[in-house]
Amino acid sequence: MKKQSEAQGYSFFQKHSQLLIPVTILALLLLFNLLRDSSYFNIAIRFNNDNNPVLAGNLISTIVDASELVILSIGMTLVTAACGGQDISVGALGTIAATMFAKVLYLFDEIGVAQILVALLATCGVTVLFSLFNGTLVAVFKIQPMIATLILFTCGRSIAYWIGQIANLFIPENPITPIIGTVIPGFPVPTPVLIVAVVGILFALVFKFTNLRLYTQTVGINQGAARLNGINCVAIKLISFAILGVCCAIAGVINVCRIGGKVTYNSLMVDFEMKAILAVAIGGNSLGGGKFRIIGSVLGAYAYCLLFNTLIAMKVPSTHITAYQAVVIFLLVIFSSDQVKETIAKFWKTWIVGKFRSKTTGTDISSGKEA
Amino acid sequence: MENEVLLRMTGICKQFPGVKALQNVEFTLRRGEIHALMGENGAGKSTLIKVLTGVYPKDAGKIILDGKEIAIHSPSQAQNQGISTVYQEITLCPNLTVAENIYIGRDKTAIVPWKKFNHDADELLKSLSIPARAKQLLGSCSLAVQQMVAIARAVDMQCKVLILDEPTSSLDDHEVEMLFSLMRRLKQEGVGIIFVTHFLDQVYAVSDRITVLRNGELVGEYKTENLPMLDLVSKMMGKELENLSNISVGHDKRATVERPAFYQAEDLASKETNPFSFHADEGEVTGFTGLLGSGRSECVRAIFGADKVSGGKVRVHGKSVKITRPKQAMKNGIGYLPEDRKRDGIIADLSVRDNIILASQVMQGFFKPYSRAEAEAFADEYIKALQIKTASQDTPVGSLSGGNQQKVILARWLLTHPQYLILDEPTRGIDIGTKTEIQRLVLKLAEEGMTVTFISSEIEEMLRTCSRLIVMRDKHVVGELTGEQLNQSEIMRTIAGGEEQ
């Protein structure tokens, strides 16, 4: 009987150990904020400039701020899993997306929901093409993802400028984009959060009704075997890049709508590639590809933004924030390393579980060392 | 000298989550002895070796070397104590020279006296009669010589205990003989050798004593001359073994019946093999045989479209089809269990369940995933049917023993309900019990009408299972044997004299 319960514990641990890190970080950060200043968790309904009700509070603004990163980290997780490497051009591609979106809107005299959708589709088309360029370099020419995407990383913002043809990016005056950036009149939940929810549901459906997860993991773990089982590895990698392209389009559009005013190409979506990679890593996903959990990356993205906003709320000067972030990331990386994990697991097994067992059952199998 | 105890392991226990890998195991190695460590897959051989070399910490027990109890925490520590291991896979660097491989990582000075080392290495190689030169790149040596260089490295590090883990599995007969003479030589110099292998013949050819493990427990230690092979096998399996030859009775009768061809290939060629023609009839077990590197695996890979097919006509059920990719082969009802299960077969990090449903799922299509319940039912069915030993369906397949991994891949293909199943070395590196199970299964499947092609390095196994053998040499088909011709000497003759045919 004991053997059985142990076997189950093993598989439970196997299944969920990955989420331990992001959940712990989120919990610690939340706890820290609770002890520091419980008003951090206050949620109120305020009215914005257009007199629409909107949820407000530190926690809400953290969740809103994380929107772009959450969406990007989903795509990044898939590329990482399938290709065993990261796309470092997502920030640049997001800028291209924002520019393309604005540019298409300039074509219309009147902007309504239909026009916005057309612009969004056109943006998706462009980013998917760019992403497939990356994907082809990786999947067909077998170039390391980071090197392959370095090209677009380098020239992406110049391409955005070339598409925009104006010094500062600006979305034409219209009633819809401010709604995307803030709230739908009469509904206080911020629109970016709703978009994230919709994207999340879409991905959940994709994973439920296709074999994307199984194929991607198989390709990421053992390409040779994947091929011999009839999986088209090139196609799977291209699909992962195409999905990341769509994610870039959505993230770029949200970002430019949230900013709402004039913005330069060099200040849009800055450092998002690194943040997205970090979110994937915090989520406990291997950056070497293979098995992945999307929820891990999503939690990782929220954890990153929570950290950032906590530091802001603590009035840490903005020039110092990166240093504090680095310390937290350092601790995180150390604690998620296999070395430390093993040590903790051993400690847990021999000292906590072992003692507990010997007290309750009298017999002890796991602490042979003490016997 | 012969009875002087060199190494004694007592009361060794080791437990993994859900599995007791070793229970109170004893092992004694004497000076100047070749001691075979035998057992089925999952019997605990590898675990015992890994405990001895410090890869796994032991849960309980003592290791006494030269009369002193020692604690080993890492492989390098084991090496310093005089316990060296040479693994099945070469763990040296092929792009360094032989001398560099022998001395690398052992010199603590800043400037390495390579001149001296090259000289010493040549002396060492000569003294052990290893056909290699110090300045030669290791990668340019044959696998057997590479293995012997690894042994030379161990010898030069004053090893007292030498562990050879499946050293012969990728060597041909001549190379095995070379390795054996080196082992006998070291034995005379007083080295204790632990020899882990699946080849029973080799155990009897070279070992002095045999220790048998089963299910993590010690069965016993025997002098080799006092333990007939049949007894050894039954001790490993824990039951009296029926005469293995009995299981092949079925196919001789069926051999005479005319059956329609399932698969026909004319001048099929791939990048890796010369054009060949081949047909497999329904319910027939065919085999490709030949020495290692003769192109037998390349032929079946071409049939499955695993390598780039460069020409030829293929017919399935008499209808002309195009098979250039694995997916097309699968759509035509062909399944293929690859030779190298680690590289081409298992998806190590994925669960047993995902590994079992993979091929079937791919055939079902990208947009039609099995529900969780369906997948679990399939996995359950085949875990039971093939008696796969695993803690649960969720266990990553990489943590299973070799034989069970092989069964998982077999389950994967059986689940696709293939009409034609190609098995390339399904029994390599697998214990005798599982081997017989797989052979039985092959014959049973054929009886039910499945077409099977079987490849094995062991000719006996081929003779037991196949009713027609394609003989290969140097990437050419040199003969086809059926009925009365199916015996070892005829195969040898065909391989050797293939040119006249």
What would your notes on this structure say?
The complex is a heterodimer of chains A (371) and B (501). Chain A is mostly helical. Chain A has two domains: 325 residues, ABC transporter involved in vitamin B12 uptake, BtuC, CATH 1.10.3470; 35 residues, no CATH class. Chain A is 70% helix and 5% strand. Chain A has a two-stranded antiparallel sheet with strand order 1-2. Chain A has a two-stranded antiparallel sheet with strand order 3-6. In chain A, α4 packs across α10, α5 packs parallel to α7 and α13 crosses α14. The longest helix of chain A has 27 residues. Chain A is globular. The two termini of chain A are 22 Å apart. The N terminus and C terminus of chain A are likely disordered. With 501 residues, chain B is an alpha/beta fold. Chain B contains 18 helices and 20 strands. About 3% of the residues of chain B have low confidence. At the A-B interface, α1, α10 and α11 of A face α11, α12 and α13 of B.
Write the layout of secondary structure elements.
The complex is a heterodimer of chains A (371) and B (501).
Chain A: H1 2-16, H2 20-36, E1 44-47, E2 53-56, H3 58-65, H4 67-83, H5 90-106, H6 113-139, H7 145-164, E3 168-169, H8 177-181, E4 183-184, E5 187-190, H9 191-209, H10 212-221, H11 223-228, H12 233-259, E6 263-264, H13 272-282, H14 294-313, H15 321-335, H16 338-361
Antiparallel strand pairs in A: 1-2, 3-6, 4-5
Chain B: E1 5-16, E2 19-30, E3 34-38, H1 45-52, E4 60-65, E5 68-69, H2 75-80, E6 83-86, H3 98-103, H4 114-127, H5 143-156, E7 161-165, H6 173-188, E8 192-196, H7 200-206, E9 209-214, E10 217-223, H8 229-237, H9 249-254, E11 261-270, E12 273-281, E13 285-289, H10 296-304, E14 309-316, E15 319-321, H11 326-331, E16 334-337, H12 341-345, H13 352-364, H14 372-385, H15 402-415, E17 420-424, H16 432-447, E18 451-455, H17 459-465, E19 468-473, E20 476-482, H18 488-496
Parallel strand pairs in B: 3-8, 3-9, 6-7, 7-8, 13-18, 13-19, 16-17, 17-18
Antiparallel strand pairs in B: 1-2, 1-4, 4-5, 9-10, 11-12, 11-14, 14-15, 19-20
